[in-house]
Amino acid sequence: MSKVVLKNIDKIYDNGFHAVKNLSLNIDSQEFVVLVGPSGCGKTTTLRMIAGLEQITKGELYIDEKLVNHVEAKDRDIAMVFQNYALYPHMTVFDNMAFGLKMRKINKKEIYKKVTEIAKSIDMESLLNRKPHELSGGQRQRVALGRAIVRNPKIFLMDEPLSNLDAKLRVQMRAEIVKLYHRLHTTFIYVTHDQTEAMTMGTKIVVMNKGYIQQIADPQTIYDKPANLFVASTIGSPQMNFIDACVIAEGDLVYLKFGEFKIKISSEISENLLKMGYKDREVILGIRPENIRIAEENNCDAISLKLELVEILGYENILYLELLENNIVVKVDTRFGATVGSYLNLSFDVEKIHVFDKITKNAII
Amino acid sequence: MEKGFSPGKFVSYIILVLGAIFILIPFAWMILTSVKPSNEVLLMPPKWIPTKFLWENYIKAYKAAPFRQYFFNSVFVAACVTAGDIITTILAAFAFSNISFKFKHIVFIAMVATMMVPSEILIIPNYVTLSEFGWINSYKALILPWCASIFSIFLLRQQFSSIPDAYYKAAKVDGCSDFRYLFTIMVPMSIPTLMSIGILKLINSWNSYMWPLIVTNTTEMRTLPVALAAFSTEAGTKYNLLMAFSVMIVAPILIMYFFTQKYIIKGVSKTGLKG
Question: Chain B residues with CB inside 8 Å of A52's CB?
């Protein structure tokens, strides 16, 4: 159980690459924090700085209120699970799990007891004498987790631990890691580029891009109220639809106009837009695929678009419709049947629309 | 599906068999000559199979030089050189692959560049240095100059560099020191390469002729290849005894090679280099 505080941290590599920029983050004890973002966004560098495997160029890092910038990795009481598991190939599963304990000069009896106990809990008891190359991907992953658990660390750090597994195993291991978190009740810091992992595992999500934190919030808030266009496009699958639009006011009503279409927006959103001076200005309208519905024929607010493609997923259908030379994506029930090439009437859930500034890309409302 | 026979396979077998014959002929010649009577050695046209197999040539060859002393010297020197080379190679390869220091790349390139210098050029300066130290005609002179090899360092550095960085990071998190990481993780993971380095070094040291000839001047310090000179006299060379002695020198290396060839091939193919 440990608290981690990162204060104005910068990381500049020897080649001049500025990987992490002025990063500040508070991680409370027993939180499951997921750092998510595309490759090169600085998430792994951040994790490595917390681990003590990467020097901090500027800023302060505290673990349990103790400044640890210059404390070695081994003295930080952390355990780390790596993307490629980093199991020592010449050692058995037992030796791999026991290695960290041996380094800490724990007596052999105690090591044996701890390793067999943890191996039992991760279903690896019968495979303790195997070498890593004799194990499947999932088993290797479990050994890597076991090696981390056996040390009973204050903080677990995980660097894309599931990305080498196939889709089915990934879902299974995802659940196992979450169960492990609930069982151990300690601080987890998890790095991934997969938004599904971030949403399903984290109690707090940190979205990163180009070395900067874009938003820190719980999964639901990140999904419902993305701080900017980047967060909105990163979280959610299929991703949010974005449409260039113009704010226009007609009498008391405010509309977002794009091409020949316009949609009326709720009074709360329109009030905000007008107050902030967006009248007659270009903005980006964002709407998630599940917030667009197939409208009744006689709905005067509906827009009619041509259906380009249908993806049948079994539990829902994904429709791709043509809008202003782009596609917008709509999620519908599997019972919905429509032929490609036909025109569909769509209505937007006005309460769920997002509006982003065209220049800053930040959310306006 | 695997084909039983194909023209390509046939041609490659022919080439391999020809290659094997090409390599084996000198060995066959050496073994057959070693049991020939003196008058059949230099016959023209050559006579492959001796009229009489003179196994006593081996006894004569054994007695012609203090074989036991030479054998001990060869084994001792080769073992020390190999052990010394492996230790310096492991440490240097680790420095070049895992530790960052100023001008690392330049130093490494400069070291590799010295491989271009022919070893004959170095014989005289090295001899002068050792004689200044007063080491001539000692084991130190036979062993120490060969306890480091750029080629070995280069080979092992390539192997160390291919070990993913995650192992190092995992070991650091586990509380492993650099030294311990090197010997508990990197070295065991590089056994095939180290084996091939060791075997190549052992063979080199075993076969070394020029250096022991120059730095030693008494029978007590000489090694087996130097002893071969004993068979060349003013009256000519006793080729049959020379060959018998050569067989005795080559035999231990051949036996060792048969047992360890899989490591040599594995090590060399793994580092993507030819020996």
Answer: 172-173
In chain A, residues 37-96 whose CB comes closer than 8 Å to chain B:
48, 51-53, 72-74, 78-80, 82-84, 86, 88-90
Minimal CA separation from A25 to chain B, in Å: 22
Identify the pLDDT of residue B269. 60
CB A344 within 8 A of CB A313: no
Question: Ramachandran region of residue A198, left (φ > 0), alpha (ψ -120 to 50) or beta?
Answer: alpha
ipTM of model: 0.78
Burial of B266 (0-12, 13-18, 19+ CB in 10 A): middle
> Is A128 an interface residue toward B (CB < 8 Å)?
no
Q: A206 and A272 in one domain?
A: no
Q: What is d(CA B209, CA B180) in angstroms, rounded to the nearest whole number?
A: 38
Coil, helix or strand at residue A228: strand
Cβ of B176 and A52 within 8 Å?
Answer: no
Beta bridge partners of A329: A320
Tokens of A238: 């299929």
Report the amino acid identity of residue B193: T
What is the total count of domains within chain A?
Answer: 2
Interval A1-30 mean pLDDT? 91
The domain boundary residue, chosen from A211, A234, A257 = A234
pLDDT digits (tens, 9 = 90+) for A196-219: 999 999 999 999 999 999 999 999
- CATH numeric code, B65-269: 1.10.3720.10
Per-residue pLDDT of A309-352, as tens digits, reads 888 888 888 999 988 777 889 998 877 777 888 888 888 888 88
**B173–A103 CB contact, under 8 Å:** no
How many CB pairs below 8 A link A and B?
Answer: 52
Residue A300 has pLDDT above 80, yes or no: no
**Average pLDDT over every residue of B54-77:** 86
Cα separations in angstroms, A55 against A70, A72, B88, B273: 8, 10, 30, 35
Q: pTM for the full model?
A: 0.79
Q: Which of A83, A89, A100 is facing B174, going by the closest CB pair?
A: A100
In a domain? residue A365: no
* Nearest residue in chain A measured CA to CA from B168: A86
Which residues from chain A sit within 8 angstroms of residue B176, using beta carbons? 74, 99, 103
How do residues B116-149 score in pLDDT, each as one tens digit?
888 888 888 999 999 999 999 899 999 999 999 9
First to last CA, chain A: 37
Mean pLDDT of A238-262: 86
Tokens of B3: 């084909």
